[in-house]
Each structure stands twice: as C-alpha cells, then as structure tokens.
User: What shape does this take?
Amino acid sequence: LGQFTEAIKQLEQARAIAADTNEPGWHADILNRLGNAYLLQPDVATAEPLLNEALQLARSLQDREQEATVLGSLGNLERTRGNDSGALDYYDRSLQLPATAGDLARTAASASELALANEAPADADGYLEKARAASGDLPDSHDKAYALIRVARLQQQLADQLPARRTALVRSAYDDLQHASRIAVQLGDARAQSWATGYLGELYESQDRFDEAMDLTRRALYAIQDLHAPELKFRWEWQQGRLLKAQGDNQAALRSYGTAIHTLHSVRTELAASLEQSRESYHRLVGPLYLEYADLLLQEGESASSPEEAQRRLAEARDAVELLKTVELQDYFQDDCVSLARSRVKGLDETLSAHTAVIYPILFPDRTDLLLSTSDGLSRHTLDVTAEQVTSEVLDFRHKLEKRTTRQYMRAARRLYDWLIRPIEQELADHDIDTLVIVPDAALRTVPMAALHDGRQFLINKYALAS
Assistant: This one.
C-alpha cells in the first residue's frame, strides 16, 4: 500500500520477538522482509546488512528455500544500486536453488524485467517462461493473482521487442489477465480486480478496440470506487482520457486528463519511491500523461473559436509542462520547498517587461512545439522535428562541446539554433526583444543555450539569457 514506515515499524516489532524465540528460521524470514521494506524506501545502506544477516542465517540452517528468497532480495538491492550484472548474478543463483513457487515467480519476473530493460529479449523470454510456469503452480490466492498480472505486463512489453512472437505473447497476456481477474473476483480483492481489468483495457486499447477498452477501463475504476487507491485511479483516468481522445471526444478527454493529474499528485511521493527502487524514471512513466494533456490543449487552442479561448488553452498547455518540471524537481531533490520556489516565479509571464520573451520548447514524439510568451501574450510555432531528433542532436552537441580544442560542436550549435530560435526570430524582432528566458525540456536542460549559433554569432551575443 506504500505505507513503508508502518510496515517497517511492525517488522521491527516482529524482529524483536523472533530474537527471543528459538526459531532462527523465523528470524531469517523477518530480516529478509525488513530488508525489502527498507529497500522500498529506498534505503540501501540499512537494507544491505539485514539481507546479509538473513542470508547467513539461512545458510547456517541449510534452508535452501530461504536462501533462494534472500538471494532474490539481494538481486533487487543490486538493481537499485544500478549494478545490473550483479543483480542478474544474484537472480541466477537464486533460480538454481529449490524455491517456493511464489519466490520463483517473483525472482524470475525480476530477472525478466531487468533483461527487458537492457534490451535482451531472448534472455527476458527465458526468465519469463519460468515466471509464468511458477505462477501457474500457485494455488488460487492473492499472490497468484498479482503474479499473473505481473507476468502479463511483462509479456506485453516483450511483445514490442519480439515482433515475431507478438501474437502469441499478447494472447498469453490476455489469458493471464483474465485468470487473475477471475481469482480476484472469487477472493473479493478489489485492487487485484482493478489491476487486471484495467490492464485488459490497455491490451484492447493497443489493438484499437476502443469500445471494449473503455468498458474495461470503467469497470477497473468501478472496482475501486469504495477504496482509497489513487495509485490505480490515476492510471485508469489517464487511460480513459486516451480512449476518449481516440474516439474524438476531446472535451471529455481533457476532463479525464485533468482529473488524472489531480489524482496523481495525491500519491506522487509513494509512486516516486517505488520507481526509485526499481530505477524506473518518473518522467518516463508519467511524463507522457502531462505531454498528452498539453498536446490535447494545444490542439484545442488551434481550433478555438476566439483569440481569448486560444490564449487560455496555450497557457494551460504551458502550465501542464511546467507542472511536470516541478514534480520532477521535487522528486530529484526530495524537497517540497521546490514548489514554493517555483510558485514565486509562476507569474513570470504576467510581469514581463516589453523587451523580454520566454521560450518554452516542448518535445513531442512526432514534432516540437515552441511556445513564445511576450508582453502581448502566447504564440505557438510547430516544427517537423521529433523529440528523438532533438535529443540526438543535443547529445552530439554536448559531447563535442567537451572537446575544448576543436570547434566540432558548431554544426550542432547551428542546427539547434535553426530549430529552436530561427522560427521565432521575426517575432522577437517585431517585439524588440533583448532578453530571452528559456525554459528547457528534457535533454535540452543538459546544454548551455548561450552556445547556440546562427552562423554569424552565438545566441549570448544577441540576447541577455536566463533559464
């Protein structure tokens, strides 16, 4: 449930009781669970000695199943550290030992996730087969439902890396999610039912079967209507927004996207902690939510019935992107004071001098949009340049900037200038702009905008700059 502090408190109490008993097996199990709880914080420094002690106890008892469990936990620890090879070594050692079906399913699934992340689909497929077989061996239970859901999600992801097996993998994922849903209904487990049904909706969405996907998505939301489950609710609200957009109902889609973002903020801290433990990027997981919302707002601004409505939609799109930047900074610095700091500059557009402009580059998968804010309001400029193209050019620019004895960076400096500044040059001149405030997105944050070059001079020679 994300209540890590309470979990640790109860496990510490259990640890104290186990220390007074003559059951070292219990002690080893509790140490392993406690280590995993700290790992979810994530607190690797506290988790590591607990897991090592659990491993020593399991080995002293010659408890091979417990040893396999702890080795899997140590694999998770190394994964949190970013040591992928070390993590896979622990996973492989765990999988070579006799283990309960539940532990085998968890460890094999973790290994498959890591192999997928490293774009090793053949290895991921092998681990996934073990995870699926072990999940099938479990009795109908909460553990089995969640194991099947996890396996199904991995099969969906693997289908993208193994196109030749896409049909079989998607079909298998469908069967596993249906099975998990049936178990959840039998057990009255509303959360598991929502996970399984919602992901089934996503599966139908990927097949462009939008009506069926919408029905499943609404059922997933209905299943948790009496629960406090924002970590689920925002996903299905977001999914509902995508489906409404695909069906052409942009107004309803905007409402769903807005609700999803509001719900997400109530669970952001817990979500960020769990992502850090798995080394998943917050931007990668929820960044598309903000960008899709901004994209839809920009589309609505383009078809607005009045200049005032167009300005409102452009401002809302800008605010959505800014909101993503704010939560990313909060999660990076682990400090909500960032919100206070950013709130002080929230009214920047309202206090611009007549000679200052703010540029918001927004990188979309299929294009780049430049939002330009001047004392007269916001304007939008769309470029036929993808986020991937901009990112590639930025990486090349940064790499060559570090070669201090050459001017190899000039080609990339001119290319980026052509993309990010030249389309708005005339508007800057029309407003007699002498100061630019650039609010960079994604990879653009990693390079100095002052070094962009128009072929004759650097950007810093033309404008005073801030970012």
Q: What stands out?
A: DSSP finds 21 helices and five strands in the chain.
